[in-house]
Amino acid sequence: MSLFPTNYQAILERIDSFDPIAYAKSRNYANGAVSRLSPYISRGVISTRVVYERLLSKGFKLYQMEKFVQELAWRDFWQKQWQYHGRAINQDLKHNQQNVNQHGLPRAIHEANTGIEAIDKAIKELYSTGYMHNHLRMYVASIACNVAQYHWQIPGKWMFAHLLDGDWASNALSWQWVAGTNSNKKYWANQDNINHFCHTDQWKTFLDFSYDDLPHQEVPRILTESVLEPTSKDQTNMAHLSPTGLPNWDVDYKAICLYTPYNLDPLWRNDLKAHRILLFDPEYFTQYPISNKVFKFIQDLAIENIPELQIFVGSFDALKKHFAHKEFYAKEHPALSYPVDVLDSRDWLSPDTPYKPSFFPYWKSCAKALKLELNTPKPH
Ligand SMILES: Cc1cc2nc3c(=O)[nH]c(=O)nc-3n(C[C@H](O)[C@H](O)[C@H](O)COP(=O)(O)OP(=O)(O)OC[C@H]3O[C@@H](n4cnc5c(N)ncnc54)[C@H](O)[C@@H]3O)c2cc1C
Question: Which of 3, 143, 174, 178 most suits a substitution to test ligand 1, by most atoms within 8 Å of the C-beta?
């Protein structure tokens, strides 16, 4: 079976077979019991709330799965940051990145040839599966931005293009966290740390220094050669995305439910008699390229799970102009916000927890609301 099946039932089974207790013990290790649910959460097939409620219904208590639920809250937190800051997340958010000497992506990272075994393996896996473990993402970002002194933007877009879970908020803001532009210091990982969490036994590499010494090393020669457009080779060919004919149908409903690469929820508004259209907006993909693998994953998720879905490649304006008499429905997402008639809210883990500028106050408020909810008797 594929590492990331696209069938809705298989996705629910992935939640059902997940063990949040094993997760808390091992999640930081490259072979830890992580959920691999992010591609589905990111694409809006399931929400953080659905995952949480389903685990509760399996009998897990909040205190047993607190670490995991906290991770789910990171997703919502970054999304709220995106809603709040808007396009400002595309630039250095809080501080300018220090010690930047290059732009582009180190060729050795692009070609999975850094010489650090765990890193090269993870990059090859990213290309073949569309997934990379969180710690490996942090290590790769630290090598690119801090060891090799590249600005975070192009490396961030390269990684985003290959991730099935590509989410610009989690991506850009995590890269910025590592590069010290959205945090107060840069994140460093040395060889000892990588050996520990990736079960490798490699020494005398360009990362084999203490934390005091690592930031003072010269940029390793292997990281100096740069690729300026690292996504151009494998990204979805825009020719495949030239506008398609407008959808047509036999019956004529008044409503149109608009799906996007970030709203592929098969249960959304399924009691509404509506035409269902997945919009691929070439303008968006030009700004945020994705690989062919990711593009196919989105298409498969949509076609397999949303009945009678039609795909339209083109602009929202073209669609709206053609179907001016129809009522458009969409679900809120900061990546793609169109002026529709009815905009549904997304399914947050804790709907009443507002934006907070930093994670721990956000999590505190979220955990309090979840505990309160559990202690409040439900009406019969
Ligand atoms: C440099 C860098 C880039 C990243 N880019 C992305 C990205 O484009 N898309 C993306 O979804 N995540 C991104 N992350 C966050 C994180 O690495 C992934 O969400 C996580 O690895 C997904 O794997 P999982 O589902 O097995 O996670 P688990 O560890 O099982 O976590 C469960 C869920 O919690 C959420 N979650 C966990 N960690 C984070 C986190 N740090 N930030 C936000 N949500 C989190 C995810 O929804 C995830 O599915 C990035 C992290 C870093 C350091």
Answer: 174
**211/102 same-domain check:** yes
The secondary structure element, H or E, covering residue 276 is strand 274-280
Q: Which of 170, 186, 197, 290 to mutate to test the pocket of ligand 1 (most atoms within 8 A of CB)?
A: 170
Do 70 and 105 share a domain, yes or no? no
The CATH number of residue 49's host domain is 1.25.40.80
Share of the chain above pLDDT 90, in %: 85
Q: Could you write out the three-class secondary structure of 220-246?
A: CHHHCCEECCCCCCCECCHHHHCCCCC
By the 8 A CB rule, do 69 and 349 touch? yes
Output the six-digit token pair for 308: 């009678």
Q: Which residue has 């089974």 as its token pair?
A: 13
Per-residue model confidence as pLDDT tens digits over 4-38: 999 999 999 999 999 999 999 999 999 999 999 99
Whether residue 169 sits in one domain with residue 180: yes
Contact in structure between 214 and 206 (CB atoms under 8 Å): no
Are 75 and 374 in contact by the 8 Å Cβ rule? The answer is no
- 327-333-337-339 Cα dihedral, nearest 10 degrees: 30
Q: Which atom of ligand 1 is nearest to the CA of 40?
A: 49
User: Residue 17 sits in which domain range?
Assistant: 8-88+350-375
Q: Which pTM was predicted? A: 0.96
Label residue 331 by pLDDT band (50, 70, 90).
very high
Number of domains in the chain: 3
For ligand 1, which residues put their CB under 6 angstroms from it? 27, 34-38, 41-42, 71-72, 74-75, 78, 134, 137-138, 141, 159-160, 163, 165-167, 170-171, 174-175, 178
